[in-house]
Every structure is written in C-alpha cells, then in structure tokens.
Amino acid sequence: MRQLPANTLLRKPLVIGHRGMPQGTGDENTLASAQAAVDAGADVVENDIYLTSDKHLVIMHDDTVDRTTNGTGRIESMTLAQVKQLRTKVGNREVPTLQEYFSAFKGRPVTHFIELKSSNAGLVAQLKNELDAAGTRDQAVAISFLGDQLKRAGQTLPELSTGLLNSNADASDPQVAVRDILAAVQPYSSTDNPAYGGLSQGAMEAGKHRGITFWPWTVNDQAAFHRLYSWGTHGITTDYAFWARDFPVEI
Ligand code: G3P
Ligand code: CA
C-alpha cells in the first residue's frame, strides 16, 4: 500500500479506464479492453464514438481506421458492414458497436463515459436512440472536446451528465482559476475534464466549494496518479486502472 502523509483525508476517486484498458490487452476501444478495465477495478469505461455512413455508432478513437486496424479510410465514410470486416492490428479483434458494448455490460455496475468524437449532427440523435434501446441512460456520461456537440447532447438528453474535455491550465490564483473554469465549462457541461498537467490543487479545492467536479485525464504517470488521488479529485482517467489497487479506499 502507498504511504501518504499522516492525516491525509482520502476519498476514492472514480477510476476511469481510458479507451478501456489498453495496458491489459494491447488493444484500445475493444470489448476486451473494456473488460480488462473492469477486471482491473475501473468504475467507469471511457469509449470514443463515431457515426457510420448508415447511422450506427461504433467505438474508435481516430477518425480513420488506419492506425488501429488492418483497413484504411475515414470511419464516418464506411457502412457498419464495412467496419465489421476490419480487425484490430494488435489483437485481431472486431471494432465494436456501441450497442455491443452496452449489451456486454448490461446490468453491471459500470458507468459509461462516451466521448463524442465528431461534430456530425446525427451522432447525438443516434446516441439517444441507442441509450434508450439499451435502457442505459442512467449509466451514461457524455464527454467531448466539442462544446457545441456537448450542448446538443445536453438539449437532447437533458438528464445526462456531461463533461467538457479541455487543456486549459489553471491561473496561479485559485479564485481566478475557478472563475476561468466556470466561464469555460458551464455553457456546455456539468463537470470539468482538464488535462491533468494544468490542474492545481488550489484550483481544485477552491472549485469544489463552487460545486465543480473534476475528472482529469489521461494520467499515465504513477506519481501524478498518486498526487491526484491524495488531492481528492473526483475521477481519474488512466490507461492503468489497476494502479488504484495500491491505494487506500476509505476516508
Ligand atoms: O478522457 C479524455 C480522453 O479520452 C481524451 O483524449 O484523445 O484519448 O480521446 P483522447
Ligand atoms: Ca477519449
């Protein structure tokens, strides 16, 4: 178990498996990767989504299939049947649909972070259809760097939690930092999802008192994971979900 300073008050953050847990499988954004994250203790699985040309949601990080699969081309120009012909380079696995992912985790206590990767206007409408078909609205959070897409998600699915991904760095004065965070985030989102390097403990403490929740990403440095955990951040997105096993879980 990690040693933390005496009297450190700890609340376990939600551990968010980034693209599942590529460290467990080599493959990102596959059902196997999602399962590896859950097996490692992740509370949340993060998946990136795109809309195929025939309006199915599929899980992939890049806007082309070139890096991760044996195919080439833009994923939003492909039909679902074409996507299903592909195999991942690392594990020879299928590219999953969002529906397949929901089915695999149906009835299990996993929160679904769904990153809206494209500004395609049909993407949010189809997300609503698929959440309803799976009966899993209450387990889903929409996150995105695309503020307008997040706004659309908030209008279409008003009860959904949302998170604005950003790379903003905190001002040195925590109160100024919090003012900046609220101004940047509130038009789009209910949480702040900063790149972890720009997040200071002072801003996070001050922000908590203004009702902000913090979900920094992507924490693949173990010392930073330790630091954020001990600061009491609300959630930590990581490729190494199993690191949380090294830390105390009770306050
Ligand atoms: O959770 C945030 C993180 O997923 C954003 O980065 O590029 O891995 O989608 P990226
Ligand atoms: Ca992502």
UniProtKB/TrEMBL annotation:
The residue ranges crossing the membrane are none
Q: Which residues form the GP-PDE domain?
A: 13-248
The protein depicted here goes by the name GP-PDE domain-containing protein
Q: Which organism is it from?
A: Pseudacidovorax intermedius
Location of this fragment in the whole protein: 481 to 731 of 820
